[in-house]
Amino acid sequence: MSGTLTLNKITAQRGISVGDAAKKIADLGWNPSYVQEAMTFPTDYKIAKAPKDPMKQVLRSYFPMQEEKDNRVYGALDAALRGDMFRNVEPRWVEWMKLFLAIIPFPEISAARSMAMVGRLAPGEDLRTGFTMQMVDEFRHSTIQMNLKKWYMENYIDPAGFDITEEAFGKCYATTIGRQFGEGFITGDAITSANVYLTVVAETAFTNTLFVAMPSEAARNGDYALPTVFLSVQSDESRHIGNGHSMLMSMLKEPENHLLLERDMRYAFWQNHAIVDAAIGTFIEYGTTNRDKAKESYAEMWHRWIFEDYYRTYMLPLEKYGIKIHHDDVQTAWKRLTEKHYVHKVAQFFAVGWSANFWRIEAQTDKDFEWFEHKYPGWYAQFGDFWKWYEKLSHRGQTNILFNGDVGYVYPHRCWSCLVPCLIREDMVTGEIDGKLYTFAHELDRWTAVEAFAGEYQGRPTPAMGRFSGRREWESVYHNVDIADAIKDLGFVRTDGKTLVAQPHLRFDEKEMWTLDDVRGHILKSPLLTLREMSPADREKHLADYRKGFTINPCN
Amino acid sequence: MTAVQSIPAKSGAAGAAIFPDSDSRKYRYFEPRSKRATHYEDVTVDVQPDPERYLLQDWIISFPNGKGAYTKDNTAALSSNWHAFRAPDQEWERTHYQRQSKIETMVQSVIANGRKSGAPKGFDKAWVKILQNHLGAWKHAEFGLGTSLMQAQRYGYTQMINNATLTNSSYKLRLAQDITLYLAEIGMDIPGFDDAAGKRMWLEDKGWQGTREAIESIMGSADYLEQYLATNIVFEPLVGELFRSGFLMQVGSPNGDFITPAVISAAEADYERNLANTIDLMHLLVTDNQHAAHNKKLFQGWVNKHVALANKAAAGLQPVWSQPHSKPVQYADVRAQSVERIKKILGELGLVLPKE
Ligand SMILES: [Fe+2]
Ligand SMILES: [Fe+2]
To answer: How far is the CA of A187 from the centre of ligand 1 (A)?
Structure first.
């Protein structure tokens, strides 16, 4: 053997540099001359010029690197079980993972699908190579997350809700918000969806909150599995962000694209804020039991990642290329998160609707109140009594909080654009599409649905742009239906045929668990259909009252 | 507080308390293929929803023509149950990366060891030309299939179909890159090796134009199932295996090349898996209890179209078999084998090989 080793040394070979390798790989493509590739992904953008310096990426090193990452993830999951992680995990946290992990694998696999769209449109083969790798990455993300969810289902005290996960995803009034997010990556104008909405905004701006803030909070709640999986997922994002940025740079070169880019940056930023902050903000602030005042609140992290990092260093510099940046939108989002208590109103809404969920929501208590008031001054006056009510009404025999007139909560209208309800009551607006009345959480949501998602934008035809469609207002599906029948129809009932999957508490005791009989006798109404049925005068009055908001009654 | 508060369970672990569904530890929304769901099924089935499973509100964004994210009419094929398909290779992320990584490691060490021992310099002169020109051209065929399948994976009606298409694309793209880097590396050891010759051959050489036309026809199809079928049921047996197994793998070593067959060998195993996936899917469709006749007719049409192209491609490549110094196999023999092979594949689907 030693002879061979010596020979190896003296014949040490020249290698090929990554740059050279990437160049040669980029030369694999050609312009077809016998049959043109079908133009199956329409866009109104003009894409002609190759970006200057896309990332150098080669599958030869990619696959072993990713396998190594995987080995670390699966090793850590095994270690977590050996270390009896679930004995010390906080159920409050894991329950919210039933919602989070029901949503996230679909946006991930949608990202994989959308790579077909940008891959097809990419100017230059370097960039196409980047997109092919991202396609495989996103396949990784989707199935590794499904695996994590299965692992929770197998090892956590209450598997109900995990066991119906993908079905629940298609039906729930909360996951509809996540569907808006995932469908946004793959439907409509290929660049709007697969480049601007997915990469330029969702991945570049919001994956830090998703994949970095979530893991930290998980660890504080004794969950060491989620951080392992999600930090591994996040480690792929810098490549994706690079791909998206190269594509964006190539589009900036065409002045004709500037109006569309302004539109799409605006839509994508606002909707990502509305959706991601609603969901992740709730998981982090309400799914935790850790009330360390030294840790950053969701709003504080948002300021660091979205405001400082993304807005200042990514969005603002686009101005010098001639893109109009809507600075006010960023400020408005920030105000919604701080002064207007957006996340808290979302958590409150999910809690009010607990009986039609597929996870447990526990009441916030004194220990939580102090932290909230410290981080969000004014919180207690607005939400303290609500959570006391919630705790009080968490026991069987009480009237379901969704229908309990003693509380004072007014069920919200749904925003036709972001699908989060119009929770900041004073900002709610209405608008018309094809002569029909719709409700929106904010003027920017109205603009998104009415002006951006249309066949024309500011006088310019946009034939590739998508449309908002389907039965977007979830409540209209169960208009005039008894809540018990709706829950049964949703499939959110345990296999005994009566116990609800969702529970308003973490008491793992059959005697405490609500059944269909405990909620029967109350009728769901669609706020939108109800609004449309009103006379114009009644409607105006209703809207004025709605915008004034509500007061939670004192809970003694 | 009136009700008696029960003591909360101290542990969040499975079995710490008994209550309804405290033992519900399987995904219970889909029917597994066999008695127990496989790991692949658990992480794959129904992740891509649709109005039948389980979109209560339908698709909530649509294309300007009113169609949602995924519709059944992205292919002319019909199915009474698109959800039935399960990929026989059971690929999910972990198995995919394990396999791809193992292949990359194997390929790189074969090349590195071969180069260390000075093997490329020992390749027969005529064989070096063949690698430069013909393997160099072939890498573009593999790449074309990879990008075509990348496009196709956007369109299938279920997660199972799209993920099988996606991994197929990934395998093809890996192979195209493997060949590219392999040629670049041995090119550094062989004086006068022209790394750009392959692409010229691909674009201009008469012998390669049939192959390029066949590949571009697959890339140009707007029907994702046609792309999938044309790739694995037609092009691969008639041209892919013909050239890889019937030429490179068998002719390499008699001409002093033990590296190329090793670099290419993984592709044959890739194909076995992708073929199994494709046959299973197509088999479901040609035996569909409502649409069997429609699908069979449709597929036969696709087969006729792509077999004609593949035959032309194979015929164009025939002269390559006479170029090496040492000729252990005859084109006619390997061609006969590949015709047998496709007949067998088509036979499983009740389809026939059109007469030349
Ligand atoms: Fe991802
Ligand atoms: Fe990503």
So the answer is: 17
* Ligand of minimum distance to the alpha carbon of A198: 2
* ipTM of the complex as predicted: 0.96
Contact assignment for B12 to A156 by CB distance below 8 Å = yes
Would strands A467-468 and A460-461 be described as parallel, antiparallel, or unpaired?
unpaired
A positions 140-179 inside 8 Å of B (CB): 140-144, 146-147, 150, 153-160, 163-167, 169-171, 176, 179
**pLDDT grade for A13, boundaries at 50, 70 and 90:** low
Task: Please give the pLDDT value at position A4.
Answer: 42
If you measure CA to CA, which chain B residue comes closest to A62?
Answer: B101
For residue A517, the CA-to-ligand 2 centroid distance in Å is 44
pLDDT by residue, tens only, chain B of 356 residues: 344 444 455 799 999 999 999 999 999 999 999 999 999 999 999 999 999 999 999 999 999 999 999 999 999 999 999 999 999 999 999 999 999 999 999 999 999 999 999 999 999 999 999 999 999 999 999 999 999 999 999 999 999 999 999 999 999 999 999 999 999 999 999 999 999 999 999 999 999 999 999 999 999 999 999 999 999 999 999 999 999 999 999 999 999 999 999 999 999 999 999 999 999 999 999 999 999 999 999 999 999 999 999 999 999 999 999 999 999 999 999 999 999 999 999 999 999 999 98
Question: Looking at residue A12, what is its pLDDT?
Answer: 57
Residue B109 forms contact with A (CB below 8 Å): no
Question: What's the sign of the alpha-carbon dihedral A320, A321, A324, A330?
Answer: negative
User: Is-contact A178 A111, C-beta < 8 A?
Assistant: no
First to last CA, chain A: 84
Q: Would the pLDDT of A211 be above 90?
A: no
State which residues form the domain around A230. 59-476
**Between B16, B60, B93, which is nearest A157 by CB?**
B16
Contact between A290 and A192 under an 8 Å Cβ cutoff? The reply is: no
Cross-chain residue pair B27–A465, CB shorter than 8 Å: no
Has domain B95-348 been given CATH number 1.10.620.20? yes
* 3-state percent breakdown (helix, strand, coil) of chain A, nearest 5: 60, 5, 35
Are the Cβ atoms of A35 and B195 closer than 8 angstroms?
no
Q: Look at A419 and B45 and tell me if their CB atoms are within 8 Å.
A: no
- Compute the nearest-CA separation of A499 from chain B (Å): 7
Give the closest residue to A553 by CA, choosing from A382, A407, A441: A407
The CATH number covering residue A104 comes to 1.10.620.20
Residue A7 within any structural domain of the chain: no
E strand or H helix at A481: strand A481-482
- pTM of structure: 0.96
Inter-chain contact B98–A59, Cβ cutoff 8 Å? no
- Nearest C-alpha in A relative to B203: A30
**Are B202 and A30 within 8 A, CB to CB?**
yes
**What letter represents residue A210's amino acid?**
L
Residue A5 lies in a domain: no
Q: Looking at the domain assignment, is residue A11 inside a domain?
A: no
Number of domain units in chain A: 1
H-run or E-run covering A440: strand A436-440
- Identify the bridge partners of residue A493 per DSSP, sorted by sequence position: A500
The residue to which tokens 């390499």 are assigned: B252
What pLDDT was estimated at residue A10? Answer: 46
User: Is residue A426 a part of any domain in this protein?
Assistant: yes
Q: Which A-chain residues 490-519 have CB contacts (< 8 A) with chain B? A: 490-491, 494-496, 499, 501, 506-513
A89 and B118: CB-CB below 8 Å?
no
Backbone angles phi, psi at A61, to 5 degrees: -95, -25
Rounded CA separation B159/B129 (Å): 44
Chosen for mutation from B97, B110, B179, B219 (greatest number of chain A CBs closer than 10 Å) is B97
Summarize pLDDT for A325-361 with one digit per residue, the tens: 999 999 999 999 999 999 999 999 999 999 999 999 9
